[in-house]
Write a structure and sequence with these properties.
431 residues, 12% strand, alpha/beta, 13 strands, 4-stranded mixed beta sheet
Length: 431
């Protein structure tokens, strides 16, 4: 295809989405000029990944509140779901057309954006407002900090754990396992008790596979190995721990049954909510969905220690998500960012949405449930957090592991096959 035609088509495809970005703002044409306040109009383009409720209405309302308090500001809102969001943000950054304020995952996703040199560094802004800086849980900044420079403000916090049906466990005299061998023993006993698939996952979602693999590798491998391999410049992926990790993943899929290879994660979660399966590996962001969907009494346990593993057995897979600002954003975008990450907004966010946040005082017993408070304490007490695997490694490497995991589950590839492909890609990426 002619390059100019391709560029025109790509731009045309973006126009409907960009034209519809006024979810919480005035529908009038954008004609900057003097406003009734006597100030020139300032337009803020605000992009997030929650077009569904309750977050859509929450952020529409927050934008309205900010505009009401700042009449010279107009906020244009655009929102698309996860995969579309990832694609669109890449297009916008490649065209030097980033929105003023937008959501970002941490670690490698954030780092890729930072490498464009189009993201505003925040150190000076944070240092100039110490009260704001100190209101954010310090440990959550790490995923947005590169070469000692902060490029994002963490807002939501999350972690991954096994949710288990306490009633089923009690009926079978089982307790939450502390080691991997104990975990396998629990799965076997549940099968013997009639639960054909004692654990389930939606293996059609590649990201769900990556969450398993990332956690398993973190438990099995020496941190020095993953630090080297997850860096594109030095990655080799030759440590035998990767084979062991893939074998563990394969073993777990054998307790999921054939259904797992045909369903997505949402279906797996709904099976747990309905009491159809005893165990599902889920994010704490899903706690409210389980609470709202059923009266199942459930608990959590972290991925158990893997005997002989060299990683931190008390680490928790999970990472914050936050906000970034483009280099060309007006000062009012910084003010809006502070408004979005204020204690008041954070407190209301968790009360409305259910997800935990990284703002001190933004979560307590009054705006969340006992289950979510327990999850919040687990996140804050973890010895360390390990980022989502598909954000920790180069996306090409992650894709091989994720597709390989799907093939592993159905017996079309072996761990050795997958690692050969990974090693070849790691070498290619260094060139």
């Amino acid at each position: 295809m002619n390059k100019k035609i391709a560029m025109f088509l790509a731009a045309a495809l973006l126009l409907p989405t960009l034209a519809a970005c006024s979810s919480g703002a005035s529908e009038e044409p954008n004609t900057p000029g003097e406003t009734p306040s006597g100030k020139d109009e300032v337009v803020i383009d605000f992009f997030h990944r929650w077009p569904n409720e309750p977050r859509k209405s929450f952020y529409d309302q927050k934008a309205k509140e900010f505009m009401d308090a700042n009449p010279h500001v107009k906020i244009n809102i655009d929102a698309v779901l996860n995969d579309s969001y990832k694609e669109k943000i890449r297009v916008l950054i490649s065209n030097d057309d980033l929105p003023d304020i937008f959501t970002s995952w941490s670690d490698s996703f954030a780092q890729n954006l930072v490498s464009s040199d189009r993201i505003q560094p925040l150190n000076e802004i944070l240092d100039a407002d110490k009260a704001w800086k100190d209101s954010i849980i310090e440990s959550q900044f790490s995923g947005f900090t590169f070469d000692d420079t902060v490029y994002g403000i963490p807002f939501t916090i999350d972690g991954k754990a096994f949710f288990y049906n306490k009633t089923i466990f009690e009926e079978n005299n089982l307790s939450a396992p502390k080691t991997y061998s104990e975990f396998v023993d629990v799965l076997k006993k549940l099968q013997e008790a009639g639960w054909e698939s004692p654990i389930v996952e939606g293996l059609t979602n590649a990201w769900a596979i990556s969450h398993y693999m990332g956690t398993i590798f973190q438990r099995v491998l020496d941190p020095a190995v993953t630090t080297k391999d997850y860096n594109v410049a030095t990655g080799e992926f030759t440590d035998p721990g990767y084979i062991r990790g893939l074998e563990i993943f394969k073993e777990l899929t054998e307790y999921m049954g054939e259904t797992a290879t045909a369903i997505d994660h949402e279906t797996a979660r709904n099976m747990f909510i309905a009491g159809e399966v005893p165990i599902v590996y889920m994010q704490f962001a899903e706690v409210k969905m389980v609470e709202d969907g059923s009266d199942v009494e459930f608990g959590f346990f972290n991925f158990p220690e893997i005997e002989g593993g060299k990683g931190d057995k008390d680490a928790l897979t999970g990472a914050p998500e936050g906000w970034m600002i483009s280099k060309n954003a007006p000062q009012e975008a910084v003010d809006f960012l502070k408004f979005l990450t204020s204690k008041e907004t954070a407190y209301e966010f968790t009360k409305t949405d259910g997800q935990l946040n990284a703002i001190k005082g933004g979560v307590d017993e009054s705006n969340t449930s006992a289950f979510r408070m327990e999850a919040y304490e687990i996140v804050n007490s973890a010895s360390a957090t390990a980022p989502w695997f598909d954000n920790a490694v180069n996306i090409n490497i992650a894709d091989i592991f994720m597709r390989g995991g799907q093939n592993l589950a159905i017996g079309e590839q072996t761990p050795e096959d997958i690692m050969k492909d990974v090693q070849a890609e790691a070498e290619r990426l260094k060139k």
